[in-house]
Amino acid sequence: MSSPSSPPRQFSRPPQRIAFLASPTDIAQKTLGKFVETYGDCPLDQAEVVVCLGGDGFLLEVLHKVSEHNIPAYGLNCGSVGFLLNTVSDEDLIARLSRAQSSQLHPLRMTAIGRDGSRHEGIAFNDVFLFRQTRQAVKIRIEVDQRVRMPELICDGIIVATPAGSTAYNLSAHGPIVPLTANLLPLTPISAFRPRRWRGALLPSSAVVHFTLLEQDKRPCAAVADFLEVRDVVEATVREDRSITATILFDPDHGLSERIIAEQFAE
């Protein structure tokens, strides 16, 4: 029996309508063929669940698709890292899906303004980051909820991560890992030069973060939200968008919350 703190199971009965999506790698395509032969394949708009075969990057692409259809995604690792994925095995897939536990993710929404005045919007289940385009470090003014918190940060860039994305680029930049239930967003500099000792901040998930790029002509900067990249930005705003929810399924005892905790004790 699940403990009271265990994530809920997604299905009250074994799912039958499964859609399969696979990355173009050989192992993902080979696994796709085996699954479709065994379980069939359902159109995405009619499916109860989508099974994603690939790596973490491919799963992020799938999340952008399935959030529109309001169906959960169950990932199987046919890539390299696989932090957000389950392991491939010969166990019955229907049985695994029936036992799977769910985690809900809300993406970040980025609004970026280009030097030409163009406006760009994108969502990110992993992170939004700004990064220098040339050899020159960028200068960024940081406002949180319309209050200037840092008049000038000189750095290679800066990251706002979701809790799920806190173990990705954010962690590589020495940012903190955040549990899913913490309602916090890590704000992490990339190679901060001034203030040299600033290591970032933890913000409430309700925070609205506004970046203004200083000296844009001399120090051009790009803004990235998952798969959307905008070059030559002059400002960008980032906030959590709770109108969008994506559901990821995990095998019992290997849920996303547990993985985030375990990652903090990894050698």
TrEMBL record:
It is an enzyme of class 2 (transferase). Its EC number is 2.7.1.23. SUPFAM superfamilies: NAD kinase/diacylglycerol kinase-like. It holds the Pfam family NAD_kinase_C. It is found in: Cytoplasm. The keyword Isomerase does not apply. InterPro entries: ATP-NAD_kinase_N, ATP-NAD_kinase_PpnK-typ_C, NAD/diacylglycerol_kinase_sf, NADK. It catalyses: NAD(+) + ATP = ADP + NADP(+) + H(+). Its cofactor is a divalent metal cation. NAD(+) binds at D56, G57, N126, D127, D156, A164, T167, A168, Y169, N170, L171, S172. GO terms for molecular function: kinase activity. Involved in the regulation of the intracellular balance of NAD and NADP, and is a key enzyme in the biosynthesis of NADP. Catalyzes specifically the phosphorylation on 2'-hydroxyl of the adenosine moiety of NAD to yield NADP. Belongs to the NAD kinase family. PANTHER family: NAD KINASE (PTHR20275). This is NAD kinase. It comes from Asaia krungthepensis NRIC 0535. The lineage of its organism: Bacteria, Pseudomonadati, Pseudomonadota, Alphaproteobacteria, Acetobacterales. The gene is nadK.
